[in-house]
From TrEMBL:
Protein name: FAD-binding PCMH-type domain-containing protein
Keywords: FAD, Flavoprotein, Oxidoreductase
GO annotation, biological process: respiratory electron transport chain
Domain FAD-binding PCMH-type: start-end pairs: 36-215
Amino acid sequence: MSEGFIDELHNALGKGAVLSGSDIDARYHHDIGGNPAPKPRAVVRPRTTEDVSVLLRLCHREGVPVTTQGGMTGLVRATLPNADEIVLSMERMNNVEEVDVSAGVAIAQAGTPLQKLQERVEQDGLMFPLDLGARGSCTIGGNISTNAGGNRVIRYGMTRDLILGLEVVTADGTVLRGLRKYIKNNTGIDLKQLFIGSEGILGVVTRAALRVFPAPAERQVALCALPSFGQVMAFLKLAQQRLGGELTAFEAMWNAYYRQTVERVKGVAGPLPTNHPFYVLLEASGSDAERIHADLEQLLETAMGDDLILDATLSTSNASAAAIWRIRDSSVELGRSFPFAARMGFDISVAIDRMEEYADTLDARVKAIDPQAFTIVMGHVGDGNLHPSVYHEHTPDKHDEFEKLVYDLTGEFGGSISAEHGIGISRRPYLKMSRTEEEIETMRALKRALDPKNILNPGRIFTV
Ligand code: ZN
């Protein structure tokens, strides 16, 4: 970086847009666990797409690396600056610019917090279906760059399925104006897909056209206890048959997750006893409250009669539905309730009919390293996605060994080492467990073509 480059940024982008030295707040270089990364050379906070373009044009000329930040809720160290990087924070581009009710589209700037978008479209009787625990802080741009999943993928798909168009600035400052509002568009390569889930290494998303749906008038939640994982699978199939498009979530919790959450997390109450092998949270939504209620009651009756479920409770109000969701959404609080730092969370995909075997094998291999270590498992079973956690209080030095164990096992099961959180820096050594050498080389070719000087989030996902 040449001397005077920061001054040049100041001049080009105006006062307030560029922070340097002691003006840089700790939040730009600490992860959500509070772990520090090197302080960036500067933090740039654009207000417009044009600002982003000016910044990248200058950084491209100078070969200065840039890491783009949203809400900083990522879990794979993708947005923490490396030494000498400039942080591009999207926090001042945080507006929902338009809600087009008739087209079912919302246009949002990339720094818009997910919850802000959800609440804005609600005012028009609409719903943006993407939902995850970090909703209050995570941003639309971050959701796009990680192709976020969350709790309603079974009905509405991943973030990728909710994007109609993107405006993106590429590494040399070129603006790709692809903010289109229609679903069907077969006019050559669908460029927006390159920027969804690629963790900001190919371009910076500045605005997005997002699909929104009529808000369901009714949302009902059932919590069920089941005797085995075989019954969990059979219950999923039955729920899909009976509820069709009304089924909006199917979340499974192994006994340890439900029991420990109910016992350890403040403010969480368990409506069912804690001694059952498995629990399922099932959500049904629709416009006709009476029909949803009847369908759900009938489903539970059939499942009970077929010995699929042992016990069940049905929400009777929004408050009781929220209380059930609270159990499922308390995974972070559960982790923090253990008074030691040696705990690790994962987000893997594996075929549903091998999930139980995966969880059992994982637990056995973890205990082979440390007999006092244990695992806690839950996940979006309807999407083939598990969130296993490994707790190893007495062997904190074995972090890397446990990590390798989980990813090796996932590779053996032909699964994906990241269903939701991405690769970033943390999982880079394990990318090859889920992608072939030819696939990774093709990713590198795309990176070289779009970012020849390797300035955008360099070293994330893979090295070039
Ligand atoms: Zn998840």
